[in-house]
Amino acid sequence: VYVTSESKFGTLAELVHHHSVLGDGLITQLLYPAPKRNKPTVFPLAPPDEWEIDRTDIVMKHKLGGGQYGDVYEAAWKRCNMT
Fold first, then answer.
1. DSSP for 27-41?
2. What does the alpha-carbon distance between residue 82 and residue 6 come to, in Å, rounded to a whole number?
3. Collapsing DSSP states into helix, strand and coil, what is residue 64?
4. Strand runs labelled E in the chain
5. How far apart are CA 33 and CA 14, in angstroms?
6. Does the CA dihedral 6-7-10-16 come out positive or negative?
7. What torsion, rounded to 10 degrees, do the Cα atoms 24, 29, 33, 39 define?
């Protein structure tokens, strides 16, 4: 682990300790840890809408084609036997 190839260290802790004492290639020596950022707010998953079909209700059939964005398959909806 290193900042400059002249000063290499076996662990990250050794690197941090060294640069806390000497700048040694950094603009200044390390004085304090960077502040922790606040974690983003995570919202709960919304229940499925009425129009959404459960994946287990779909049977994949043969491949129709494909392209840059993925493959397209014919599928059947088990409940209504619709394609």
1. SS---SPPPPPPPPP
2. 68
3. strand
4. 58-67, 70-77
5. 15
6. negative
7. -70
- pTM confidence score: 0.40
Residue position matching structure tokens 């190839």: 5
Helix (DSSP H) and strand (DSSP E) numbers for the chain: 1, 2
pLDDT, mean of each 10-residue run, the chain (83 residues): 79 90 86 87 79 87 93 88 60
Token digits for 64? 């129709």
**What's the Cα-to-Cα distance from 15 to each of 25, 27, 60, rounded to whole Å?**
12, 15, 54
| Residues facing residue 82 across a β-bridge | 77
> Look-up: residue for tokens 């809408």?
49
User: What separation in angstroms does the CA of 17 have from each of 20, 26, 27, 32, 63?
Assistant: 5, 13, 16, 11, 58
